[in-house]
Specification:
16 strands, 45% helix, five-stranded parallel β-sheet
């Protein structure tokens, strides 16, 4: 077993380049392995796997518990004594004193861990509230294996040749990621955020479904939103004060480190606010980092530099030369060892590499959009709702069946009459799509359709069907407004499975720990209690965060519209990436692989090359899957 554990740990060396450790129980029934990125207590006393003072528990743990010194003081007041200064040791002692659920409720942080209880002969798994840190668990023929990435599980003999899950592939094609709890492999699942699981060593689950049936939440987004609505803060000023104080506390806790800390700055509201607050509370000058794009439509480096100049941070930028970006693409299947197709994975990896040159920990501004109405699509969906009530159904049917040349004429005549959030949608190529969306009566179904990459993935994936996910689930708190319903779905699905996967893999690929103050659960709970006028407004996004930032930056630095952390994917696929994409999308390759129906993909590829339609994001899902398939399934 030691050889297997060593291989599993080595597969994750990028996540923990500083140290490694292996532990076996006396019966050789349980083995734990760990790769360490040393952040807190760099001495051997912080090494893992770690045993509790009593010897009952052994743990492997990825992440950080924030405010752990206060928890240490609380435990010491109860008689606990500590050997070192790591949050791992404090977490172990908290489990000893409060039990697993009691400890989890007291821990504010980002983490995933496995804890062996030698008294109960159980392995306990847990994941942080928002899902910032990943945890994969595989169940097959009496064996249970787990890890932070799938590549580690692939080193275990029971999971060396897993079966691809075509249902998960259909979900991936819709979302551009594989939603929790599914993975691209049968028999391996993701532990959902805010949950824990107990597995008996002597009676392990017989299947993945049996293991999932034992998963229990200790923090439930559904309940958080319900409580927020029931315990509303009526005063906007009171809510802003609480949000401001909580954010400062969250940033202050996240810069506690025995290694250098920086912040990723894109010039948007979120990262500018985190940078400004960090500059306020940090005892040392703040390092900020950004990416410069040569394509002006995607470049925010000048605005980021202006913010950094005003805040007087030590600012560094990297230019996203197309050749550098293209060189990264070949490494993506290894870094995201599950199919993943958010194109912003490329600049995220570039800025992570830049930051890692001088710091080991970096703060990011992720999380503001999902709780304060930051996505442009929220305004678009509100406009859809209004338009659906006024557009005659006969016009919608006519638009769906009209020829392209007629739609081109209609779009040019109608743009001035369409609400501003939808004007980008009113082109000849998109008008038909607009008509399809407006015919969907249920707003939740319309939103799912709108954010889907492929709206009918089962028409493309051979032998695949779509199981239910957190995004499609009807379990949603009652009484939510339209925008809050969308934000809730993004909170439980898009945020953990897209945004947080992207930043975790990109940062950990280079041994950088990313921390996200806006995802502090106390801040999130306050957001759901705040007046809704602070969380969404038609005229501008993220009103609460804008107000907090306006206390720290002049209006001229926060009034510009954020471009988004994207890449010029449509142009790249017609230009420098065309040859590579043509090879990846060749009909002979796709027929050989037997995963997709060729015709719908080729139709979009030809339309994209002609310039008639922009199908870049949809094609990117297929390209990233085919690249992953070639790397991981031997095809």
């Amino acid at each position: 077993m030691v050889a297997i554990l060593r291989q599993m740990a080595f597969a994750l060396a990028h996540r923990g380049p500083d140290d490694a450790g292996i532990w076996l129980d006396q019966d050789n029934r349980v083995g734990l392995c760990h790769r360490r990125l040393s952040i807190i207590d760099l001495s051997p006393l912080g090494a893992q796997p770690m045993q509790s003072a009593s010897g009952r528990y052994s743990i492997v743990y990825n992440g950080e518990v924030y405010g752990f010194l206060e928890l240490r003081d609380e435990l010491e007041a109860r008689g606990s004594r500590f050997r070192g200064h790591s949050d791992t040791e404090i977490l172990l002692e908290a489990v000893e004193i409060y039990g697993l659920e009691g400890a989890l409720r007291r821990c504010n942080g980002m983490f995933a861990f496995a804890l062996y209880d030698k008294v109960e002969r159980k392995v306990l798994f847990a994941r942080d509230r928002m899902g910032e840190k990943p945890l994969y668990i595989g169940v097959h023929d009496g064996a249970v294996a787990f890890g932070s990435e799938l590549k580690s599980l692939r080193k275990h003999p029971s999971f060396a040749h897993p079966e691809l899950d075509r249902d998960a592939l259909a979900l991936y094609l819709r979302h551009n990621y594989v939603p929790t709890p599914y993975t691209i492999y049968r028999g391996i699942f993701k532990l959902p955020p805010g949950c824990w699981l107990s597995i008996s060593v002597d009676e392990p689950p017989l299947s993945m479904a049996a293991a999932l049936g034992s998963v229990r939440p200790y923090w439930d987004a559904f309940e958080v939103v319900e409580r927020g609505y029931a315990d509303r803060i009526e005063s906007a000023e009171e809510a802003l004060l609480l949000l401001d104080n909580t954010l400062k506390a969250a940033v202050r806790e996240r810069i506690v480190s025995d290694v250098p800390v920086g912040v990723l700055l894109s010039s948007g509201i979120d990262s500018s606010l985190v940078s400004a607050v960090m500059q306020e509370v940090s005892p040392t000058p703040v390092n900020t980092y950004t990416v410069r794009f040569l394509e002006e439509d995607y470049n925010e480096a000048d605005a980021a530099a202006a913010v950094a100049g005003y805040l007087k941070t030590d600012h560094t930028e990297i230019t996203a030369e197309p050749e550098t970006a293209f060189g990264i693409i070949s490494s993506l299947p290894d870094i995201y060892d599950e199919p993943f197709a958010d194109p912003s994975q490329i600049p995220t990896l570039m800025v992570a590499k830049l930051a890692r040159k001088t710091v080991t920990v970096a703060l990011s501004g992720d999380g503001g959009d999902e709780f304060f109405g930051g996505y442009k699509r929220y305004q678009q969906m509100m406009a859809f709702d209004r338009l659906a009530k006024t557009m005659p159904s006969v016009a919608l049917h006519a638009a769906k069946g009209a020829p392209d040349w007629l739609l081109d004429i209609a779009s040019s005549l109608s743009r001035s009459m369409i609400a501003a959030p939808l004007r980008d949608e009113v082109t000849g190529g998109r008008l038909r799509r607009l008509a399809e969306l407006l015919q969907i009566q249920d707003p939740d179904d319309r939103y799912l359709n709108f954010v889907s990459q492929w709206t009918r993935p089962t028409d493309v994936v051979l032998g695949g069907k779509e199981p239910s996910t957190a995004f499609s689930s009807k379990r949603i708190p009652g009484g939510l407004g339209s925008v809050d319903r969308m934000m809730f779905r993004d909170m439980v699905a898009y945020l953990p499975d897209n945004i947080l996967v992207k930043i975790d893999r990109a940062s950990m690929a280079v041994g950088l720990e990313m921390r996200t103050p806006l995802l502090d659960y106390r801040f999130i709970e306050l957001a759901w209690r705040s007046p809704r006028t602070l969380c969404f407004a038609d005229n501008h996004s993220k009103p609460a965060l804008r107000k907090l930032l306006s206390r720290r930056l002049p209006d001229k630095l926060i009034s510009a519209n954020k471009r988004g952390f994207g890449v010029p994917l449509n142009a790249w696929l017609r230009g420098p990436l065309r040859e590579w994409a043509s090879d990846m999308l060749s009909p002979s390759r796709m027929r050989r692989d037997g995963m997709f129906k060729v015709e719908p993909i080729m139709n979009r590829w030809k339309a994209h090359l002609s310039g008639n339609r922009d199908w870049g994001p949809q094609l990117w899902t297929v390209l990233m899957f085919n690249a992953w398939l070639e790397r991981w399934m031997g095809l």
